[in-house]
Amino acid sequence: MSASPTVTWLGTGNFEVPPGRYWNSFVVRGGGLTFLVEPSPTSLPHLRTAGLGVGDLDVVLISHFHPDHTFGWPFLLFEILDKRAGSTGHPLTVVGPPGVAGFLEQMMDLGSMQVTHRNAHARLEIRYVEASDGSRHQLADLVELRAVEVEHVPELTCLGYLLDLDGHTLGYSGDARPCPGLDTIASGCATFVIECNGTHPNRDKGHMDTGAVRELAARYPAVRFVATHVGADVTAEKLPGVLLPEDFTTIELGSSARSG
Ligand SMILES: [Zn+2]
Ligand SMILES: [Zn+2]
């Protein structure tokens, strides 16, 4: 029986950083790999606070290119280069929507960090994986990732993911409004980490609110729903039966059915 995979939140808030919550980002450990899901602006300091070094990261997973999900990349890459340069046999895999490698390089250019970018790619083994709707990626013997496109904003491809960790399947929505992709994820996972941005009065609705999460959860009673990327108006009272973690909360995904 393998150990239960875990999820540790480095942040649980939405773009607006509601009081007491930093930008949504979390670490998944399971199937022999450590994932950083969303390199948010505060992911590096919060990895340290959580006692998780960048030296442990195997995979960085990105849902879409909005800054609350990605603008921690220059700080992470600098730290990874510092901690891992010269160590062989520990590749870093970066998974994201089409164009992810170019997007991250452009970010380094804008920050005048071309030297760090070049050195990191010369001295480390960094592999980019472009995911798209329905694509499957075998990341380790017992770890398969499947991408599911969700609807968020028209100018960006946004992906949700199904992550099979040695028999435990974790779903993640990325940023999404109610759409068929969320049903695809919900019907394929045991635990669904879902965005619940809450009310967003100034824009076309590209997110979930508490009513939309309740409605989805009611249709998949066997799935454990966990809300993240939450806004100031999102409370446990409005999400009965849905887990609402705080920054630095860790949950276990449950025991594996797989033996041996
Ligand atoms: Zn977001
Ligand atoms: Zn977004």
> What does the main sheet amount to?
7 strands, mixed
SS content category: alpha/beta
Number of helices: 7
Order of helices and strands: EEEHEHHEHHEEEEEHEHEE
Strand residue content: 25-35%
- Average pLDDT score: 94
Report how far apart the termini are. 6 Å
Shape: globular
Question: What ions, cofactors and ligands are bound?
Answer: zinc ion
Per CATH, the architecture is 4-Layer Sandwich
The overall strand count is 13
The CATH topology corresponds to Metallo-beta-lactamase, Chain A
Number of domains: 1
Give me a quick take on this structure.
23% of the residues lie in helices and 27% in strands.
Textual characterization of the structure:
- This protein is 23% helix and 27% strand.
- It has 260 residues and is an alpha/beta fold.
- The chain has one domain (6-252): Metallo-beta-lactamase, Chain A (4-Layer Sandwich), CATH 3.60.15.
- Helix 3 (73-84) packs across helix 5 (114-123).
- The protein is globular and about 50 Å long.
- The relative contact order is 0.17.
- Bound molecules: zinc ion (2 copies).
- Residues 14-15, 66, 68-69, 175, 229 line the site of one zinc ion.
SSE topology sketch:
Layout: E1 6-11, E2 25-30, E3 33-37, H1 43-49, E4 59-61, H2 67-70, H3 73-84, E5 92-96, H4 100-110, H5 114-123, E6 126-130, E7 136-140, E8 143-150, E9 158-165, E10 168-172, H6 180-186, E11 191-195, H7 210-219, E12 224-228, E13 250-252
The site of one zinc ion has 7 residues, from helix 2.
Key structural traits:
binds zinc ion, disordered C terminus, alpha/beta, 260 residues, 7-stranded mixed beta sheet, 7 helices, Metallo-beta-lactamase, Chain A
